[in-house]
Amino acid sequence: MAVELEIHTSINDIHPAEWERCFGRDYPFLRYDFLAGLERSACTTEAAGWQPCHLLLRDQEICIAAAPGFLKSHSYGEYVFDWAWADAWQRNGLDYYPKLITAAPFTPSSGPRLFIDADYPQAQKVFLSAVANFCEQQNISGWHLLFTPEDLADSLDPSLWCRRTTTQFHWFNKDYRCFDDFLARFNSRKRKNLRRERQRIVEQGLSLTTRVGSDIGAEHWQFFHRCYQMTYAKRSGHGGYLTREFFTEVCPALGDAAVMVIAEQADRPVAAALYFQSADTLYGRYWGCLEEFENLHFEACYYQGIEYCIANNKQRFDPGAQGEHKIQRGFEPVLTHSAHWVAEPDFRAAIASFCDREREQVDRYRKDASTYLPFKNED
User: Fold this and answer.
1) 77 lies in the same domain as 194
2) What is the CATH number of the domain that holds 43?
3) Residue 99: which H helix or E strand, with range?
């Protein structure tokens, strides 16, 4: 197989039709226009520590394997935390950065990570080897596939790849007809608690509206950016990763992929939550408020999302990373996966040992978390 690995430092160097042949348009965070928009709005640039480094393997003129890639000069915005690894590299006089990641930027949601042409059965093996060689030649410390599908993680050689798991909490549609149908699965006490939370929204004079695609106006995007920045300011004291232009120029061009919930009090917007959607999944991404209201976060970020999934026949609702408080609201603990190729053999062995121990702990945690779900005993 006479193949060549191409390195593209901008998504704009790849023809949109070729990228969409590889990754389609359903998964919103790898759509060509989403990635191009992140570059255009200065979210994924070398200055931001997210230098695009998209990888294509060609056999003659045919792309037989591909992966989105970014050279990182830090570990922010990834949600698979490796700060301890970076510290170990530094303490041993080595450089951990740059590192190469294959991920959806700023997005802890599992989805496609590698494209492999089914007509070329050796393409994955050749592609993985070619990228590893590229990393070694460029003194890149490793290649990290973040939030990758489980079957891809299963297919990787464990002697070369270290596998990590984390726990998230997702909602699954059991053919519910309405929100009350979902609540009927709850035990009595948890069902009353959830209804009490929703009633507090009414008592505070709040109303919520869901808008999709072109129904989200320019004023809504401006308002959402303000909410987003306030959330980051409260949490970390600095602005968020995404720029104003991303929300006001890129997101409106994504069509019906974007879903926004806006909360108002006395006809005045006070909070908003932003989701993205694929054909069968709703992804909860960002939230912000100008004022604090009791239970509004739960309503805007969880209950409105569940209602949207039921009404639009979405099979899964992925509300993002972390959050044990989601369990009592019917979000089930699931495992997410990442895989890590490390150039330095000695560190590879140490990281593999760490990942093995971590996976055992994570699996025990997931099983224990499942016992706190609010559902009635349905055996």
Assistant:
1) no
2) 3.40.630.30
3) strand 99-102
Place of tokens 């920045």: 229
Alpha helices, H only, 237-373: 244-245, 296-298, 304-311, 345-370
Calpha distance 94→84 (Å, rounded): 14
153 with 63, same domain? yes
Q: How far apart are CA 163 and CA 157, in angstroms?
A: 10
Cβ atoms of 286 and 247 within 8 Å: the answer is no
Is 329 part of a structural domain of the chain?
no
Report the alpha-carbon distance of residue 54 to residue 170 in Å, rounded: 30
Tokens of 68: 């989105």
Is the same domain home to 241 and 349? no
Q: At 218, list the tokens.
A: 């320019």
* Residues 39 and 89 grouped into a single domain: yes
Contact 56/9 with Cβ under 8 angstroms? no
Q: Indicate whether 50 and 157 sit together in one domain.
A: yes
> What stretches in the chain show pLDDT beneath 70?
1, 235-239, 378-379
184's CB contacts (< 8 A; 6+ apart) are 191
Instruction: Give the per-residue pLDDT at 378.
Output: 63
CB-based contact 117:65 (threshold 8 Å): yes
The H-or-E segment that residue 116 falls in is strand 115-116
CA 215 vs CA 37, 208, 245, 279, 287: distances in Å: 20, 15, 19, 19, 18
Q: Does 105 share its domain with 209?
A: no
Rounded Cα gap, residues 314 and 311, in angstroms: 8
Q: How many domains does the chain have?
A: 2
Question: 264: helix, coil or strand?
Answer: strand
Q: For 178-228, write each residue's pLDDT tens digit.
A: 999 999 999 999 999 999 999 999 999 999 999 999 999 999 999 999 999
Instruction: Tell me how long the chain is.
Output: 379
Return the amino acid letter for 307. E
CA distance 181 to 179: 5
Range(s) of the domain holding residue 340: 3-168+334-370
214 with 344, same domain: the answer is: no
> What are 252's two structure tokens?
């409106």
pTM of the shown model: 0.95
Q: What is the pLDDT of residue 130?
A: 98
